[in-house]
Write a structure and sequence with these properties.
CATH topology of the largest domain: 434 Repressor (Amino-terminal Domain)
Distance between the termini: 71 Å
CATH superfamily of the largest domain: lambda repressor-like DNA-binding domains
Number of strands: 2
Strand content: under 5%
Largest sheet: 2 strands, antiparallel
Number of domains: 3
Helix content: 40-55%
Order of helices and strands: HHHHHHHHHEEHH
Oligomer: single chain
CATH architecture of the largest domain: Orthogonal Bundle
Strand order of the largest sheet: 1-2
Length: about 240
Protein backbone atom coordinates (compact mmCIF):
# COMPACT_ATOMS: atom_id res chain seq x y z
CA UNK A 1 0.00 0.00 0.00
CA UNK A 2 2.89 2.34 0.80
CA UNK A 3 4.28 1.89 -2.71
CA UNK A 4 0.88 2.64 -4.25
CA UNK A 5 0.69 5.85 -2.24
CA UNK A 6 4.20 6.83 -3.37
CA UNK A 7 3.46 5.98 -7.01
CA UNK A 8 0.28 8.05 -7.07
CA UNK A 9 2.02 10.93 -5.32
CA UNK A 10 4.70 10.80 -8.00
CA UNK A 11 2.00 10.65 -10.68
CA UNK A 12 0.36 13.80 -9.30
CA UNK A 13 3.70 15.63 -9.29
CA UNK A 14 4.39 14.51 -12.86
CA UNK A 15 0.97 15.75 -14.01
CA UNK A 16 1.55 19.09 -12.32
CA UNK A 17 5.00 19.45 -13.90
CA UNK A 18 3.43 18.76 -17.31
CA UNK A 19 0.64 21.28 -16.68
CA UNK A 20 -2.05 18.60 -16.95
CA UNK A 21 -5.21 18.98 -14.83
CA UNK A 22 -7.96 16.52 -13.93
CA UNK A 23 -10.11 18.27 -16.51
CA UNK A 24 -7.43 17.54 -19.13
CA UNK A 25 -7.40 13.86 -18.13
CA UNK A 26 -11.18 13.42 -18.34
CA UNK A 27 -11.46 13.09 -22.18
CA UNK A 28 -8.45 10.74 -22.32
CA UNK A 29 -10.01 8.43 -19.72
CA UNK A 30 -13.53 8.91 -21.09
CA UNK A 31 -14.68 10.08 -17.67
CA UNK A 32 -16.03 13.25 -16.10
CA UNK A 33 -13.69 15.51 -14.18
CA UNK A 34 -15.46 14.51 -10.95
CA UNK A 35 -14.87 10.82 -11.71
CA UNK A 36 -11.18 11.47 -12.32
CA UNK A 37 -10.93 13.24 -8.97
CA UNK A 38 -12.63 10.26 -7.34
CA UNK A 39 -10.16 7.84 -8.94
CA UNK A 40 -7.23 9.69 -7.37
CA UNK A 41 -8.99 10.20 -4.04
CA UNK A 42 -9.92 6.51 -3.73
CA UNK A 43 -6.67 5.32 -5.33
CA UNK A 44 -8.54 3.02 -7.70
CA UNK A 45 -6.60 3.69 -10.91
CA UNK A 46 -6.26 0.55 -13.01
CA UNK A 47 -3.05 -0.31 -14.88
CA UNK A 48 -4.81 0.42 -18.17
CA UNK A 49 -5.78 3.92 -17.05
CA UNK A 50 -2.35 4.46 -15.50
CA UNK A 51 -0.82 3.65 -18.88
CA UNK A 52 -3.22 6.07 -20.61
CA UNK A 53 -2.23 8.85 -18.21
CA UNK A 54 1.47 8.14 -18.71
CA UNK A 55 1.06 8.17 -22.50
CA UNK A 56 -0.50 11.63 -22.23
CA UNK A 57 2.78 12.75 -20.62
CA UNK A 58 4.81 10.73 -23.16
CA UNK A 59 6.05 8.47 -20.36
CA UNK A 60 6.15 4.74 -19.80
CA UNK A 61 4.95 3.26 -16.50
CA UNK A 62 8.57 2.22 -15.92
CA UNK A 63 9.56 5.91 -16.23
CA UNK A 64 7.06 6.77 -13.52
CA UNK A 65 8.42 4.03 -11.25
CA UNK A 66 11.94 5.37 -11.81
CA UNK A 67 10.78 8.87 -10.89
CA UNK A 68 9.23 7.47 -7.72
CA UNK A 69 12.47 5.72 -6.77
CA UNK A 70 14.50 8.86 -7.41
CA UNK A 71 12.23 10.86 -5.11
CA UNK A 72 12.53 8.43 -2.21
CA UNK A 73 14.66 9.68 0.72
CA UNK A 74 18.07 8.02 0.46
CA UNK A 75 20.64 7.25 3.10
CA UNK A 76 23.62 9.61 3.07
CA UNK A 77 25.45 8.40 6.18
CA UNK A 78 25.35 5.60 8.69
CA UNK A 79 25.69 6.36 12.36
CA UNK A 80 29.12 6.06 13.97
CA UNK A 81 27.83 3.02 15.87
CA UNK A 82 26.70 1.33 12.65
CA UNK A 83 30.05 1.96 10.98
CA UNK A 84 31.75 0.51 14.06
CA UNK A 85 29.59 -2.61 13.82
CA UNK A 86 30.57 -3.12 10.19
CA UNK A 87 34.31 -2.79 10.89
CA UNK A 88 34.06 -5.48 13.57
CA UNK A 89 32.74 -8.04 11.08
CA UNK A 90 35.10 -8.57 8.13
CA UNK A 91 32.54 -10.54 6.09
CA UNK A 92 29.91 -7.85 6.66
CA UNK A 93 32.41 -5.19 5.58
CA UNK A 94 33.29 -7.16 2.45
CA UNK A 95 29.65 -7.60 1.48
CA UNK A 96 28.89 -3.93 2.26
CA UNK A 97 31.63 -2.77 -0.11
CA UNK A 98 30.41 -5.28 -2.72
CA UNK A 99 26.77 -4.14 -2.70
CA UNK A 100 27.83 -0.48 -2.80
CA UNK A 101 29.56 -1.45 -6.05
CA UNK A 102 26.25 -2.97 -7.27
CA UNK A 103 27.30 -6.61 -6.94
CA UNK A 104 24.53 -9.21 -6.89
CA UNK A 105 24.38 -12.21 -4.56
CA UNK A 106 25.58 -14.57 -7.36
CA UNK A 107 28.47 -12.18 -8.03
CA UNK A 108 29.56 -12.29 -4.39
CA UNK A 109 29.41 -16.06 -3.89
CA UNK A 110 31.09 -16.71 -7.24
CA UNK A 111 33.99 -14.41 -6.40
CA UNK A 112 34.50 -15.07 -2.68
CA UNK A 113 34.62 -18.25 -0.60
CA UNK A 114 31.36 -17.49 1.15
CA UNK A 115 28.27 -19.66 1.42
CA UNK A 116 24.95 -18.40 0.14
CA UNK A 117 23.40 -18.67 3.61
CA UNK A 118 26.20 -16.59 5.18
CA UNK A 119 25.79 -13.93 2.48
CA UNK A 120 22.04 -13.78 2.92
CA UNK A 121 22.49 -13.38 6.68
CA UNK A 122 24.80 -10.39 6.14
CA UNK A 123 22.51 -8.94 3.48
CA UNK A 124 19.64 -9.15 5.96
CA UNK A 125 21.73 -7.10 8.37
CA UNK A 126 22.37 -4.48 5.67
CA UNK A 127 18.62 -4.44 5.05
CA UNK A 128 18.07 -3.55 8.73
CA UNK A 129 20.69 -0.82 8.42
CA UNK A 130 18.68 0.55 5.44
CA UNK A 131 21.71 0.32 3.14
CA UNK A 132 19.79 -2.11 0.92
CA UNK A 133 16.36 -3.60 0.54
CA UNK A 134 16.55 -7.39 0.26
CA UNK A 135 13.93 -8.27 -2.33
CA UNK A 136 12.32 -11.61 -3.20
CA UNK A 137 14.72 -14.20 -4.66
CA UNK A 138 17.48 -12.36 -2.76
CA UNK A 139 17.70 -9.53 -5.27
CA UNK A 140 19.37 -6.42 -3.88
CA UNK A 141 18.02 -2.88 -4.12
CA UNK A 142 20.56 -0.24 -3.08
CA UNK A 143 19.01 2.47 -0.87
CA UNK A 144 21.91 4.87 -0.43
CA UNK A 145 22.00 8.35 -1.95
CA UNK A 146 24.35 9.10 -4.86
CA UNK A 147 26.40 11.21 -2.45
CA UNK A 148 26.54 8.50 0.24
CA UNK A 149 29.83 8.61 2.12
CA UNK A 150 31.51 7.30 5.24
CA UNK A 151 32.05 9.64 8.17
CA UNK A 152 35.22 11.68 7.87
CA UNK A 153 37.78 10.05 10.18
CA UNK A 154 35.03 7.65 11.28
CA UNK A 155 35.37 3.92 11.99
CA UNK A 156 35.35 2.86 8.32
CA UNK A 157 37.99 5.39 7.25
CA UNK A 158 40.11 4.57 10.29
CA UNK A 159 39.84 0.86 9.53
CA UNK A 160 41.06 1.29 5.97
CA UNK A 161 43.84 3.65 7.01
CA UNK A 162 45.07 1.20 9.65
CA UNK A 163 44.76 -1.99 7.62
CA UNK A 164 45.15 -1.12 3.97
CA UNK A 165 47.53 1.84 3.62
CA UNK A 166 50.73 -0.25 3.64
CA UNK A 167 49.25 -2.90 1.34
CA UNK A 168 47.92 -0.26 -1.06
CA UNK A 169 51.34 1.27 -1.66
CA UNK A 170 53.13 -2.08 -1.88
CA UNK A 171 53.54 -1.78 -5.66
CA UNK A 172 55.65 0.18 -8.13
CA UNK A 173 52.56 1.50 -9.97
CA UNK A 174 54.06 0.38 -13.30
CA UNK A 175 51.04 -1.46 -14.73
CA UNK A 176 48.71 0.11 -17.28
CA UNK A 177 45.84 0.19 -14.78
CA UNK A 178 47.94 1.88 -12.09
CA UNK A 179 49.00 5.46 -11.58
CA UNK A 180 50.83 7.28 -8.81
CA UNK A 181 51.26 11.05 -8.83
CA UNK A 182 53.12 12.76 -6.01
CA UNK A 183 53.02 16.56 -6.02
CA UNK A 184 54.89 18.95 -3.77
CA UNK A 185 54.55 22.70 -3.64
CA UNK A 186 53.87 25.81 -1.59
CA UNK A 187 50.24 26.95 -1.69
CA UNK A 188 48.39 29.79 -0.02
CA UNK A 189 45.31 28.93 2.04
CA UNK A 190 43.12 30.21 -0.80
CA UNK A 191 44.89 28.09 -3.42
CA UNK A 192 44.82 25.07 -1.13
CA UNK A 193 41.05 25.45 -0.78
CA UNK A 194 40.63 25.78 -4.56
CA UNK A 195 42.68 22.64 -5.15
CA UNK A 196 40.61 20.71 -2.61
CA UNK A 197 37.41 21.74 -4.40
CA UNK A 198 38.86 20.37 -7.64
CA UNK A 199 39.75 17.11 -5.91
CA UNK A 200 36.15 16.80 -4.69
CA UNK A 201 34.88 17.51 -8.20
CA UNK A 202 37.15 14.77 -9.53
CA UNK A 203 35.75 12.41 -6.87
CA UNK A 204 32.21 13.15 -8.11
CA UNK A 205 33.31 12.43 -11.68
CA UNK A 206 34.73 9.10 -10.53
CA UNK A 207 31.36 8.25 -8.94
CA UNK A 208 29.58 9.17 -12.19
CA UNK A 209 31.86 6.90 -14.24
CA UNK A 210 31.48 4.12 -11.68
CA UNK A 211 27.68 4.39 -11.90
CA UNK A 212 27.82 4.29 -15.70
CA UNK A 213 29.76 1.02 -15.62
CA UNK A 214 27.28 -0.68 -13.29
CA UNK A 215 25.37 -2.04 -16.29
CA UNK A 216 28.46 -3.93 -17.51
CA UNK A 217 28.89 -7.59 -16.49
CA UNK A 218 31.08 -8.22 -13.45
CA UNK A 219 33.82 -9.87 -15.53
CA UNK A 220 34.22 -6.64 -17.51
CA UNK A 221 34.93 -4.57 -14.39
CA UNK A 222 37.92 -4.53 -12.07
CA UNK A 223 38.11 -3.18 -8.54
CA UNK A 224 39.67 0.29 -8.50
CA UNK A 225 40.64 2.25 -5.40
CA UNK A 226 41.57 5.92 -5.70
CA UNK A 227 43.38 7.71 -2.91
CA UNK A 228 43.40 11.51 -3.04
CA UNK A 229 44.80 13.59 -0.21
CA UNK A 230 46.30 16.96 0.49
CA UNK A 231 47.70 18.27 3.78
CA UNK A 232 50.20 20.62 5.35
CA UNK A 233 53.13 18.24 5.87
CA UNK A 234 56.92 18.10 5.89
CA UNK A 235 59.00 15.00 5.34
CA UNK A 236 60.11 13.62 8.70
CA UNK A 237 63.51 12.98 7.15
CA UNK A 238 64.10 16.75 7.08
CA UNK A 239 63.07 17.38 10.70
CA UNK A 240 66.66 17.29 12.07
CA UNK A 241 67.62 20.03 9.60
CA UNK A 242 64.91 22.46 10.68
CA UNK A 243 65.80 25.53 12.72
CA UNK A 244 63.98 25.27 16.02
Amino acid sequence: MAQINSLLATLKKALKSHGITYADLAPTLDLSEASVKRLFAEQTISLQRLEQICQLMELEISDLVQLMNEQQPRLQHLSIEQEQEITQDLVLLLITVSVLNRWTLPDIISYYKLSESDCIQKLARLDKLKIIELLPKNNIKLLVAPNFSWHENGPIQQFFQANIAKEYFKTKFNNEDECLIVLNGMLSSQSNGEFQRKLKKLAREFDDINNQDVALPLESRNGVTVVMAVRNWRYGLFEPLLRK
